[in-house]
Structure formats: C-alpha cells, structure tokens
Amino acid sequence: MKKYIQILTLFLISLSSCEINQEIDPEIDPMNLDEVREVLKGHLYTPEGKLKSINSYQFEFDIHVGRQDWYYDESGKVVLTSGTYENDTTGVSLYFYNGSGLLVQKKSFYKRNGDFEYVESVFLEYDENGRIVRELNSEKKLIRSHTYNESGLLVLTQYGENQDMEKEIYEYDEFDRIFKYTYMGGGESPILLYYYRYNSLNQLEAKEAYGLGSTEREDAFQYFYNDRGQLVEEKEFYPQWDFVPKFRKVYEYYTGNNISKN
Prior knowledge:
Blueprint: E1 4-5, H1 8-16, H2 34-41, E2 44-45, E3 51-58, E4 63-72, E5 78-85, E6 88-97, E7 103-112, E8 115-126, E9 132-136, E10 142-148, E11 154-159, E12 167-172, E13 178-184, E14 190-198, E15 204-210, E16 217-225, E17 231-238, E18 244-253
Antiparallel strand pairs: 1-2, 3-4, 3-18, 4-5, 5-6, 6-7, 7-8, 8-9, 9-10, 10-11, 11-12, 12-13, 13-14, 14-15, 15-16, 16-17, 17-18
C-alpha cells in the first residue's frame, strides 16, 4: 500500500540545521528554494518496495561518507532526492515529467556557504519508442547521446558537445544481458573494461576486470541481493591497485512498516 509523507517542516529543518519545531524566518530563506518548497507543499509518497536511500562508505568500506534519500509521487515516480553528509543536507534534485510520464528534466540545487543555490539542469529527449537519445545541459548543449541496436538495447553512449571524446560501449550475450562494458577516453586503448557475471537467478553478481599486468580477471564490483531480489549492497574495488576496497553502497527500500507523519 502506498503511503504519503508530508515532510515540509522536517525537511526545511534539515536544510537549515535547526532544532525540531523551530520556526524558520522566511526573510532569510534562500529564494532559490521556491521550487523545492512547491514540491514539499504537496504529498511525497514512500511506496513499499521503492528505493528509500543509498548510504555510501569509503576507506575499507567502513567510513560513512554520505546518504541519498528518495521520494516519490502518487504514481510511484521519483520527484525529489536529497543528499546528506553527517546529518546535514548537501543538495537536492527535483524531477519533472511530461504528459506521457517520461522524465524530461532533472534540476539540481547545491548547498553553498550555508544557502541552497540552483546549479544546473539536465534535459532528456526521447525517440518514438520512449528511449532516451539525448541529454542536454542548462544551456541546451549536448552532454550525452545514446544509441540502440535493432533489438532496442543500448549499445553506445557518447559524451560532449562534439561527441568525439569519451564513450561507453555495451556488448550483449545471447540472453540480451550485458556481458562486456568498455569505456574509451579518446584514445585507441580502453580506460575501463568490465566483464559482467550473473548468478543462477540471472542477477548481476559481479563486474570483473584485469589488474595491472595480470592475465586473470578479478571482481571490480560485487552485488548482493535480498530474498525479494532487491539490490542491497554494492562493493567496488580498484583494479589498478590490487583490487583494494574503493566504495561500498548500501541500498534500503520502503516497507509496509514505514509510518507517515504530518
């Protein structure tokens, strides 16, 4: 059952590092938060099974470095995400959709010198099949393009206005699963090369890579799931430094036990 949460007061308290129930003086509120406030005046939903938060860790996977929280509209589309570091909000993003329910704009605000400022937007364009083909920045300049094969699978992502530098190449197996990912930085040799491995449930289990000077692949990424098939943990390692730990992410999901408060 979908539940809603009206979090305007608590969220603004978080933004301002105020005490609970402390009134916020509207004269000192950043004007750039107007659009955020409009979203927060409505209902934000926490649908069961939807992604709730991602906690990130570094340094042997032990040091917490941040969290991102996700909120949705009544139809289950994400409308707001907030980034948090040491219990202080560092940024928020708003998501806007067209009449067909396709995401067409992501608008980001970052916290700078104690205030939140509008930083940038990303605009998305689609083909007739509803696939993202172009992403534009705030100035409507091309930042990414996406190419698909005749089966509708993403095979190429190119970066930059001229599309002649960075690119990502995806290759698929007979089951239409990605089995190889290549990242090119403008030269003839790949910067990153990952081979995908799946478990018996057809879930991505790991991305393998070659270490420096090695002829054998090891896990550069590892993925772990709960009994519902939801991704709950991701571990990343440095292939160039003997696969020492790099990042760990822990995924949490909304459950039926979440209580909505006004």
